[in-house]
Amino acid sequence: MSNTETELKRLIVDTLALEDIDAADIDSSAPLFNGGLGLDSIDALELGVAIRKQYQVKIDAEQDDVAQIFSSVAALAQFIDSARS
Questions:
Q1: Burial label, 5 (beta-carbon count in 10 A; 0-12, 13-18, 19+)
Q2: CB neighbours of 58 closer than 8 A, spacing ≥ 6?
Q3: What is the pLDDT of residues 34-65, one digit of tens each?
Q4: pTM (two decimals)
């Protein structure tokens, strides 16, 4: 697991105030939406803003691959790491 994945899990829990979920319990490969954490579009918006603030990486909602980017913590971390390198 990358450092970005670990940071993202903490960011997800803190940003979305997931009080009953510990960051360490989030499976990096589990879906963030429709199962997994069960996030919704508002959560995605909040998470996108938090990612932009923390990593200075913007995720354009109009991108063709935005669903893939938000598919899991691992995919999101890979996108952020790629955008920052």
A1: buried
A2: 48, 52
A3: 878 889 989 999 999 999 999 999 998 888 88
A4: 0.89
- Select from 75, 11, 68 the least CA-distant residue to 43: 11
- Which two tokens mark 10? 């903490």
The whole-angstrom separation of Cα 19 and Cα 1 is 23
Residues 31 and 71: beta-carbon distance below 8 Å: yes
Q: Select from 71, 1, 3 the least CA-distant residue to 36.
A: 71
- Cβ burial of 45 (10 Å; 0-12, 13-18, 19+) is exposed
Residue found under tokens 């354009």: 60
Buried b / exposed e along 58-70 (16+ C-beta atoms within 10 A): ebeeeeeeeeebb
State the Cα–Cα distance between residues 79 and 28, nearest whole angstrom: 14
